[in-house]
Amino acid sequence: MMQLFCRSALVLCTVLLAACAVMKDRVQQLDNAQRAYEGAVRWGHFDIVYGLHRNDDGSTPIVPDNLANYRVSAYDVLSNSVAADESSAEQTIRIKYYHPEYMSEHTLNLRQHWVYDPQTNLWLVTSPPPRFE
Fold it and tell me: Is 10 a residue whose pLDDT tops 90?
């Protein structure tokens, strides 16, 4: 059931981002993708978060079962830059999160590498997804 939900969410996200691709330039598409990513992290929709990541072999990483146990308390963009040819971007983010059972806040600083895929008209993250521990 969870895998079906993940696939459905990924398809929906892909369709929405692809529709935006027709109407907007790459930088605007990147902004939209990064905002969607932020919203998904903030609200705990990790199926969408992981759906925007790609492993080195092009596959989508598997969503860990324990992510439903964590809550995000803050998401901050620390830096953001786009390559001159608008085919890649770097973003540094800070995520603060906690486990409700332990009530101890933790911080992740992540540097993300975003790549534009011209075949799908999507921006994807090629760096590893956030890991909450």
Answer: no
